[in-house]
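Entry 14. Two folds queued back to back today. First construct below, sequence then structure tokens.
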Amino acid sequence: MSQRLLATASTHSESLISYVDKACTYALDTVLGAGSGPVARIAELAVTNYLSKMRHGHLRIVTPSHVYSYPLPGSGPHNEHPSLHAELKVVHDSFWTRMMTMSDLGFAEAYMYGEVDVDDLQSLFKIFIVNRALLSSLEGSRFSKLFTAVPHYLTNSRFANTLSTSRSNISAHYDISNRMFEGFLSKDMMYSCAIFEDLDADLRRPPPQKYNPVIDKLAGLKGASESSECSSSADESEVDDLHIAQQRKLQHILGKAKIRDGHRVLEIGSGWGEMAIQACKSANCEVDTLTLSSEQKILAEKRIAEAGLSHRIRVHLMDYRKMPESWKHSFDRVISIEMVEAVGIEFLDCYFATIDWALKEQGGVGVIQGITMPETLFPGGICPTISLLVSSLTKGSKNRLIVDSVENIGPHYARTLREWARRFDDCFDDVIAPTLREEHPNVMDGERGAKELEIFRRKWIYYCEIGFLSRTLGDHIMTFTREADSSYGCNVFA
């Protein structure tokens, strides 16, 4: 079975629940990965029976012995999306068992493991979305619950994000390599939804040439030592729309926060330091920023030093629940950008209670940006609904924090992800694959390593924009203040 998490630079103890999680994952992968014989035939029958209810779009599934086409002939003239077409080629029978037991998540894993090929992934996602009621009914089947309910409850409920597992989860995602992220992020190293002037401008112009000098530098062809200046996969002489959009998003968040000279700012989730840098450029403030990734801390501190701001920005390798007692009610502002997804649903009240604890009792303001509704890229993560965020803010702060504004920038994630996907694909062979082989030789080298690299590549490609494009997923910026705080004023147009 594929290793779900790579070995990372961080080493730390794991809780009992993390071992239970690994055991359940291994057992489930073993059962699903076998995927042949009578179980696979039963699964194929169950899945095709459910798909026979499909009404929208056109889906063709090709197996070695059969071709399925949906909607079935005579299913009615109510196809609302007749222009949507996609074809699946089943490579391994485990595709059927994954689909039967885990529905759309099962398809995601089957695709990542190369058990199914797709001619047009985007069209397929759109077909899944317009027929999502069907997928929901498949996911709720008795067989699905038998395989997934108990492991999911044990490993994703109230114990899943204990302090020891939280750092494991974040390290697994971010400690892969700074160089890998430098390959496809813009030069600001922002790994979150941007705000573009035009949502679809990239679709109306020819794609850029695959060659560019920045990728060569990252690959070591022209001096990898310059990588800190080369974190964009667009020529520096050209306008980088992604970088501009990320700066626009940061200025919007800073405008909502209304940071002033003399303020002390807490950032939960450092990224690679760009928000802290821009905050200190916008006002004569100080920032304490928290990360659970040692790789992020190293590069963030380097970037902060290059900006000449080390005396005003402190990067802490620290869980937000472990802040020192001296920080209580010490911060004028709290900002957290796309970190809340990794908190865990059972810990949202605690998360907001901690923000309430850290903010000054008079005049404190917080701004968080977060993906809303679930996604599968973060191990142990959960993407809450906006209503859950609001209710958790109220409950966690005991009504001492109130919502000032909520905005959904989710549609901008579609283009953000297209930009990342293009850059990721362009630099995969020259930058990402060599980096993974170098840093994880036990996983990525040799004949088996080629398979692991392909799984890794397909996983990132799968993390696409369709959910955001259709508003199935959102990305909300929520601003909140102390109750009865007149000093904040009105900030509608920030």
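Second construct, same run, same settings:
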Amino acid sequence: MRIGYARVSTLDQNVDMQLKALDASGCERVFTDLGHSGALRQRPGLAEAMAVLRSGDTLVIWRLDRLGRSLSHLIELVNDLGRRGIALYSVTEAIDTGSAGGLLIFHIMGALAEFERGLISERTRAGMAAARLRGQAIGRPAKLGPEGLNAALDLLVHGGVSLADAARRQGISRATLCRALRRRRALISVDAVSPISAPAWSSGP
């Protein structure tokens, strides 16, 4: 038996194209999830289809991304179907895991996608490392507490350092230090900051 499954992640998307493709593929029953994109337990249509499927059946989908919410999830579902003697057929990709060639193609696609994800992750880490070497702040801007702000002010007033240097020594970005200084109403114009104007921040005589 060929069982169809169709899914759209939002209610305003149209599922008709998927249903027509599944009908043309000879599906005897079709289950749908409209506006569901979570795990199996959050997709009642898929859960019902999985419960109906029996050994020798084929689960037909319009496209691979309609079944799995991620590559790992998709592979997990395909492996589960295989253990139960159930094939998966994707209309768009023309992949049939019921054949040795189709199953091989599916796993090759999964391996290539995993490889690409690894390359992207590696490039991201390399870019972050290069940014750190340049002294560029990475990730969410760090917060500057009262002690840190006082230390930065001391560096600006008595150390003769630039805003960028003072911020870097506190482990924050220049923009974060500027915002903290503005909140303290310590300067009129951030761009005009220099060691010459520093005495304006001093609270002493």
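Quick look at the second one. The helical segments are 16-24, 44-52, 71-83, 100-133, 146-159, 163-169, 174-183. The chain has seven helices and five strands.
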